[in-house]
Design goal:
Length: 78
């Protein structure tokens, strides 16, 4: 449990909250509704995230070549 908590603490809290809500609601929807809901939720996350995680992750991936999606989290500190 402690190990899982440490892993989750490294993640962007806004994105985790949005993912939890998306899972909770989308699993009860039809495929088409879920696809539209998840797209809207992803767009919403971009605007409500105070850390600007999407921008940081893209910059670290494209510009700095320091982040590899699927191989860990982006660096949240800078």
């Amino acid at each position: 449990t402690v190990e899982l908590c440490r892993v989750l603490l490294e993640k962007n809290p806004t994105v985790l909250r949005q993912a939890r809500m998306a899972y909770k609601y989308a699993r009860e929807m039809r495929w088409e509704e879920a696809a539209e809901y998840l797209t809207a939720k992803a767009d919403q996350t971009t605007f409500v995230d105070p850390e600007r995680g999407r921008e940081k992750g893209l910059s670290q991936f494209l510009d700095e070549k320091a982040f590899r999606p699927g191989h860990g989290a982006y660096r949240r500190d800078g």
